[in-house]
């Protein structure tokens, strides 16, 4: 496995570089996780979800809290002062060192997952050059993923660790080890509940392909093949994981409190910086209609709600002209957006790759329509899509559009002028690599309009990062670049969503059930194509 | 994958690493009253912007030469002057006469770091790309690997972007000179090198090989025919370049003399601080500075340097090929570093540049040497608070270079150029020289790691406060001496036989 060794080692040097070179960046997430370390270490379990000395209360599921408790055992040896709950905004050099190292070491899970994924890739025949081997390309696309690198190693979060579980679970499904895949996903859900976004895909797929053991000849469901034993095993597995995680809190009667921490609907529709999703477009439309209305004297300026969406600073906000959106509406929209994909894999599962595609649609659908979505959540679609991208050229085209826009939308995370060059060069590196590696010396992957759109992204980048700070508008409209970025990127993400749907439809038409059987047995007899 | 993609990825990686280092501290940050090299460069901007050219190098009421007086040749001064103009546009406080002394702010740091990067991107990096693609052999994959290792050499990055200097400019000009000579453009090559000399007088370390190579070439072409014509062309180019650079100082002889006096400060002694050269290492055993008068020290170092440079220069004069030229550059710059007068620890970068040229041919020794050069500057990095970038870039460089250039796989006796050693050691029983070399490499890397950790973590005994810097400089000195001998032997054993090289490949 020289291939993955290469990229792992180069990844680790990159991670080290990023983590330690960047002394300037200290995000709020730094303090968030320090606070959680302190809470889990110095308070009894019963206080964990009630503690509110810091504004950054514990709002991840219990398994993550246990994980923090484990980390805090090591943290004690670095600097025990960081484990005091009242020690707010504490960031001594050993604390920073410990936090950075903890991200790097827990990323081991991700590296292992990438290795497993690389084993499942269908190798092309006759490609001897290491650089053009799909498994190598996949390992670089995952390990050097721009978004993951900056979010984890510069901004600070444990996404690598969490995505490790997701990718490992996907790999297990690709290897037809469904129970392991389900177990891993259950663990993941109890680590961070954002992965509920993709849970519908898991539910439908496992029910359809694991609990029903046989298909009809045309690929449709054979009801009689239902295996209650399998359903029982699956349900038992998932429930026991949840019992371990939530059990103590249920016994203490704290479940409502825990859930209220996990799902804080009091936050607004959009995050301070709008994630590039449908609601960003909706906000813009609202703004446009309001302005137009005032111009045409249809609306009274005084009647409009104050502090509407321009700032993005305001958490709870109302729309001026269009109806305001409630959490229930976003939930409904999300469900509607993913329903056709779920129905499609229910009718014809199309193997683990079909499941992966459905997972992507779920991830993107909830990203586009969800309530209070963070821009970082786009990684949930970009990372698994890398797998499909190295296998098919059509998916590669979707990947290029989605990854480029999604990654660019992460730019505002690093906002100081000194960091501009780091983020730009890393992003360019990843983009140049993905374009050239996926194209692999053959025809263009993108349609002309997509090329124009991505070139427009360059113009947006130059405008927002270079021209705007020097222009006089900076004082009057400080949030304009953020608005432009989210709206422009929202278009690309929506487009990728539609293309994913289109690819699923064409997949459904060309799908041949006998081929699925072949690949199925193939994976059983041995993992097909080991990279050397 | 297309080559241009790989090249751009390498360059972007190089830029990202450079910029990552530049977010760290610089020399003399927040340390009044003298600060460090960062303040020196800022001060030069202040002086060159506000004072007339005639006063730049003179001690006047407005120009206190004891406070970071200008002591580099005119091209550096012009560079500072251009930077000062841009600084003035952004924020006039940065270059205000007298008042700006010791000015520090995040925005100013960003500006200064950007000037370094601009110089690097304009001069050094294009030359490296050109060198790797036009003057190295092998597949395009190998060329890209060499390029990446060349760009990731930590010593230069840490000094330029951490400590703060503009070595990429002077070394870049020298590199352009080498590239031009390699491509056969002798006249433009000598012009580029003249610019390098006018940027930093330390480029004299490289001067002798340039001189011998060009002279040897002219001699070979026949001093009475085309050779003479070439010689005249080259000398005219050099003279004109120098003349243009020194134009403002030529009006008055006292001006020119003052510049020369500032550039070559003989009064500063044989060596300062802890340098990994012969004199400083000898100082542990014999206190030369107290035994010999300063004149004698000067002559002694001059004689030793000349003696050390002579063999490779003569060889180059007889055989002026590009292969010999590259090796002579290594030997000459190392000889100057080891034996000449008033050497700074940063001058090892001048020897590191030509060793980078050997990365594709003799990877193991080159990587080993380059790593040692970085290590030899450890005390300086610790003083500047650059420990983490030092550790990270060194590890990254070691990993990338050993892996990409497969330094530890391709090491037969031929590839390591150990044939001559075998002949020299004929009286000893037969040994596996390759095996010994590899183990020496491992042990020395382990020693460097150990000393680096010890310098940081262990308190030296009270009666030996300088224990670790001395150990670092002595260890590095031994490495440098070994490398110096090695490259001299390689130069004298001649270029590798093409046929045997193909066979081993």
UniProtKB/TrEMBL annotation, chain A:
<protein>
    <recommendedName>
        <fullName>Alpha-1,3-glucosyltransferase</fullName>
        <ecNumber>2.4.1.-</ecNumber>
    </recommendedName>
</protein>
<feature type="transmembrane region" description="Helical">
    <location>
        <begin position="451"/>
        <end position="471"/>
    </location>
</feature>
<feature type="transmembrane region" description="Helical">
    <location>
        <begin position="477"/>
        <end position="498"/>
    </location>
</feature>
<comment type="similarity">
    <text>Belongs to the ALG6/ALG8 glucosyltransferase family.</text>
</comment>
<dbReference type="GO" id="GO:0042283">
    <property type="term" value="F:dolichyl pyrophosphate Glc1Man9GlcNAc2 alpha-1,3-glucosyltransferase activity"/>
</dbReference>
<feature type="region of interest" description="Disordered">
    <location>
        <begin position="512"/>
        <end position="532"/>
    </location>
</feature>
<dbReference type="Pfam" id="PF03155">
    <property type="entry name" value="Alg6_Alg8"/>
</dbReference>
<feature type="transmembrane region" description="Helical">
    <location>
        <begin position="135"/>
        <end position="158"/>
    </location>
</feature>
<feature type="transmembrane region" description="Helical">
    <location>
        <begin position="97"/>
        <end position="114"/>
    </location>
</feature>
<feature type="transmembrane region" description="Helical">
    <location>
        <begin position="178"/>
        <end position="198"/>
    </location>
</feature>
<keyword id="KW-0808">Transferase</keyword>
<comment type="pathway">
    <text>Protein modification; protein glycosylation.</text>
</comment>
<feature type="transmembrane region" description="Helical">
    <location>
        <begin position="231"/>
        <end position="251"/>
    </location>
</feature>
<dbReference type="GO" id="GO:0005789">
    <property type="term" value="C:endoplasmic reticulum membrane"/>
</dbReference>
<feature type="compositionally biased region" description="Polar residues">
    <location>
        <begin position="512"/>
        <end position="526"/>
    </location>
</feature>
<dbReference type="InterPro" id="IPR004856">
    <property type="entry name" value="Glyco_trans_ALG6/ALG8"/>
</dbReference>
<keyword id="KW-1133">Transmembrane helix</keyword>
<feature type="transmembrane region" description="Helical">
    <location>
        <begin position="420"/>
        <end position="439"/>
    </location>
</feature>
<feature type="transmembrane region" description="Helical">
    <location>
        <begin position="320"/>
        <end position="342"/>
    </location>
</feature>
<dbReference type="GO" id="GO:0006487">
    <property type="term" value="P:protein N-linked glycosylation"/>
</dbReference>
<keyword id="KW-0472">Membrane</keyword>
<keyword id="KW-0328">Glycosyltransferase</keyword>
UniProtKB/TrEMBL annotation, chain B:
<dbReference type="Pfam" id="PF03155">
    <property type="entry name" value="Alg6_Alg8"/>
</dbReference>
<feature type="transmembrane region" description="Helical">
    <location>
        <begin position="439"/>
        <end position="459"/>
    </location>
</feature>
<comment type="function">
    <text>Dolichyl pyrophosphate Man9GlcNAc2 alpha-1,3-glucosyltransferase that operates in the biosynthetic pathway of dolichol-linked oligosaccharides, the glycan precursors employed in protein asparagine (N)-glycosylation. The assembly of dolichol-linked oligosaccharides begins on the cytosolic side of the endoplasmic reticulum membrane and finishes in its lumen. The sequential addition of sugars to dolichol pyrophosphate produces dolichol-linked oligosaccharides containing fourteen sugars, including two GlcNAcs, nine mannoses and three glucoses.</text>
</comment>
<keyword id="KW-0256">Endoplasmic reticulum</keyword>
<feature type="transmembrane region" description="Helical">
    <location>
        <begin position="144"/>
        <end position="161"/>
    </location>
</feature>
<keyword id="KW-0472">Membrane</keyword>
<dbReference type="GO" id="GO:0042281">
    <property type="term" value="F:dolichyl pyrophosphate Man9GlcNAc2 alpha-1,3-glucosyltransferase activity"/>
</dbReference>
<keyword id="KW-0808">Transferase</keyword>
<feature type="transmembrane region" description="Helical">
    <location>
        <begin position="348"/>
        <end position="370"/>
    </location>
</feature>
<keyword id="KW-1133">Transmembrane helix</keyword>
<dbReference type="InterPro" id="IPR004856">
    <property type="entry name" value="Glyco_trans_ALG6/ALG8"/>
</dbReference>
<feature type="signal peptide">
    <location>
        <begin position="1"/>
        <end position="20"/>
    </location>
</feature>
<keyword id="KW-0732">Signal</keyword>
<keyword id="KW-0812">Transmembrane</keyword>
<feature type="transmembrane region" description="Helical">
    <location>
        <begin position="390"/>
        <end position="408"/>
    </location>
</feature>
<comment type="similarity">
    <text>Belongs to the ALG6/ALG8 glucosyltransferase family.</text>
</comment>
<feature type="transmembrane region" description="Helical">
    <location>
        <begin position="173"/>
        <end position="197"/>
    </location>
</feature>
<comment type="pathway">
    <text>Protein modification; protein glycosylation.</text>
</comment>
<keyword id="KW-0328">Glycosyltransferase</keyword>
<protein>
    <recommendedName>
        <fullName>Alpha-1,3-glucosyltransferase</fullName>
        <ecNumber>2.4.1.-</ecNumber>
    </recommendedName>
</protein>
<dbReference type="GO" id="GO:0005789">
    <property type="term" value="C:endoplasmic reticulum membrane"/>
</dbReference>
<feature type="transmembrane region" description="Helical">
    <location>
        <begin position="229"/>
        <end position="249"/>
    </location>
</feature>
């Amino acid at each position: 496995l020289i291939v993955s060794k290469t990229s792992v080692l180069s990844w680790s040097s990159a991670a080290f570089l990023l983590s330690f070179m960047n002394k300037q960046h200290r995000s709020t997430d730094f303090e968030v996780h320090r606070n959680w370390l302190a809470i889990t270490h110095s308070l009894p379990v019963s206080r964990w979800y009630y503690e509110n000395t810091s504004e950054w209360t514990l709002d991840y599921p219990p398994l993550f809290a246990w994980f923090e408790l484990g980390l805090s055992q090591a943290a004690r040896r670095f600097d025990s002062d960081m484990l005091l709950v009242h020690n707010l905004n504490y960031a001594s050099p050993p604390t920073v060192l410990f936090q950075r190292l903890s991200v790097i070491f827990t990323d081991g899970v991700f590296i292992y997952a990438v290795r497993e994924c690389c084993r499942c890739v269908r190798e092309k025949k006759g490609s001897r050059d290491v650089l053009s081997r799909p498994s190598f390309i996949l390992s670089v696309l995952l390990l050097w993923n721009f978004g993951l690198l900056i979010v984890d190693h510069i901004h600070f979060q444990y996404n690598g660790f969490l995505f490790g579980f997701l990718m490992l679970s996907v790999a297990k499904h690709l290897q037809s080890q469904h129970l392991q895949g389900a177990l891993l996903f259950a663990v993941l859900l109890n680590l961070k509940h954002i992965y509920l976004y993709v849970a519908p895909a898991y539910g439908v797929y496992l029910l359809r392909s694991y609990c029903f053991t046989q298909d009809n000849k045309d690929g449709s469901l054979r009801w009689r093949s239902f295996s209650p034993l399998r359903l029982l095993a699956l349900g038992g597995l998932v429930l026991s994981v949840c019992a371990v995680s939530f059990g103590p809190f249920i016994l203490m009667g704290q479940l409502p409190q825990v859930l209220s921490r996990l799902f804080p609907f009091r936050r607004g529709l959009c995050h301070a910086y709008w994630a590039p999703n449908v609601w960003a477009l909706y906000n813009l439309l609202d703004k446009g209609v309001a302005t137009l209305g005032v111009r045409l004297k249809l609306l009274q300026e005084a009647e409009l709600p104050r502090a509407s969406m321009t700032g993005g600073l305001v958490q709870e906000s109302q729309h001026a002209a269009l109806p305001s959106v409630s959490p229930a509406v976003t939930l409904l929209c999300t469900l509607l957006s993913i329903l056709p994909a779920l129905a499609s894999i229910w009718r014809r599962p199309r193997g683990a790759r079909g499941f992966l595609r459905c997972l992507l649609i779920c991830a993107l659908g909830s990203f586009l329509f969800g309530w209070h979505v963070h821009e970082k959540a786009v990684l949930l679609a970009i990372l698994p899509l890398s797998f499909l991208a190295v296998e098919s050229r059509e998916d590669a085209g979707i990947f290029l559009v989605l990854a480029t826009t999604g990654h660019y939308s992460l730019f505002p995370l690093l906002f100081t002028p000194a960091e501009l060059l780091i983020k730009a060069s890393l992003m360019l590196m990843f983009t140049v690599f993905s374009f050239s590696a996926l194209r692999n010396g053959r025809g263009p992957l993108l349609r002309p309009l997509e090329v124009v759109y991505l070139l427009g992204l360059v113009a947006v980048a130059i405008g927002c990062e270079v021209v705007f700070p020097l222009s006089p508008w900076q004082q009057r409209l400080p949030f304009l670049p953020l608005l432009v970025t989210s709206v422009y990127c929202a278009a690309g993400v929506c487009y990728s969503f539609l293309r994913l749907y289109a690819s699923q439809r064409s997949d459904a038409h060309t799908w041949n059930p006998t081929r699925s059987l072949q690949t199925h047995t193939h994976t059983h007899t041995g993992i097909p194509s080991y990279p050397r | 994958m297309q080559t241009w993609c790989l090249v751009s990825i390498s360059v972007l990686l190089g830029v990202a690493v450079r910029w990552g280092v530049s977010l760290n501290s610089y020399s003399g940050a927040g340390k009044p009253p003298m600060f460090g090299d960062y303040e020196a460069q800022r001060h030069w901007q202040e002086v060159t912007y506000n004072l007339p050219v005639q006063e730049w190098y003179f001690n006047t009421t407005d120009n206190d030469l004891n406070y970071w007086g200008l002591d580099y040749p005119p091209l550096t001064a012009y560079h500072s002057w251009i930077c000062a103009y841009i600084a003035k546009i952004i924020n006039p406080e940065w270059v205000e006469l007298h008042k700006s002394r010791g000015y520090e702010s995040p925005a100013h740091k960003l500006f200064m770091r950007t000037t370094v990067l601009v110089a690097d991107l304009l001069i050094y990096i294009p030359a490296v790309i050109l060198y790797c693609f036009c003057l190295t052999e092998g597949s395009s994959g190998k060329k890209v690997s060499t390029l990446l290792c060349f760009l990731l050499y930590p010593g230069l990055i840490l000094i330029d972007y951490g400590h703060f200097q503009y070595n990429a400019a002077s070394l870049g000009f020298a590199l352009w000179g080498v590239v031009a000579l390699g491509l056969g453009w002798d006249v433009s090559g000598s012009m580029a090198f003249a610019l390098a000399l006018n940027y930093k007088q330390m480029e004299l370390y490289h001067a002798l090989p340039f001189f011998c190579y060009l002279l040897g070439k002219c001699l070979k072409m026949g001093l009475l025919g085309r050779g003479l014509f070439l010689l005249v062309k080259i000398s005219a180019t050099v003279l004109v370049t120098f003349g243009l650079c020194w134009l403002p100082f030529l009006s008055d002889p006292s001006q020119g003399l003052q510049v020369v006096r500032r550039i070559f400060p003989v009064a500063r002694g044989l060596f300062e601080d802890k340098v990994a050269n012969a004199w400083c290492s000898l100082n542990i055993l014999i206190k030369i500075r107290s035994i010999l008068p300063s004149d004698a020290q000067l002559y002694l170092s001059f004689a030793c340097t000349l003696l050390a440079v002579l063999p490779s220069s003569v060889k180059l004069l007889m055989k002026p090929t590009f292969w010999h030229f590259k090796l002579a550059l290594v030997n000459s710059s190392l000889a100057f570093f080891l034996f000449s007068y008033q050497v700074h620890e940063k001058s090892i970068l001048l020897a590191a540049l030509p060793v980078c040229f050997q990365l594709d041919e003799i990877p193991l020794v080159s990587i080993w040497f380059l790593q040692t050069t970085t290590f030899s500057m450890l005390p300086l990095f610790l003083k500047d608070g650059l420990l983490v970038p030092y550790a990270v870039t060194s590890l990254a460089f070691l990993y990338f270079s050993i892996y990409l250039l497969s330094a530890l796989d391709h090491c037969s006796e031929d590839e390591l150029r150990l044939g001559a050693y075998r002949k020299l050691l004929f009286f000893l029983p037969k040994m596996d020289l390759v095996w010994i070399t590899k183990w020496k490499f491992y042990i020395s890397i382990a020693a460097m790691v150990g000393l680096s950790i010890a310098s940081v973590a262990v308190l030296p005994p009270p009666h030996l406060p300088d224990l670790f810097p001395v150990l670092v400089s002595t260890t590095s000195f031994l490495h440098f001496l070994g490398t110096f001998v090695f490259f001299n032997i390689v130069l004298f054993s001649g270029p590798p036989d093409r046929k045997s090289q193909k066979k081993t490949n």
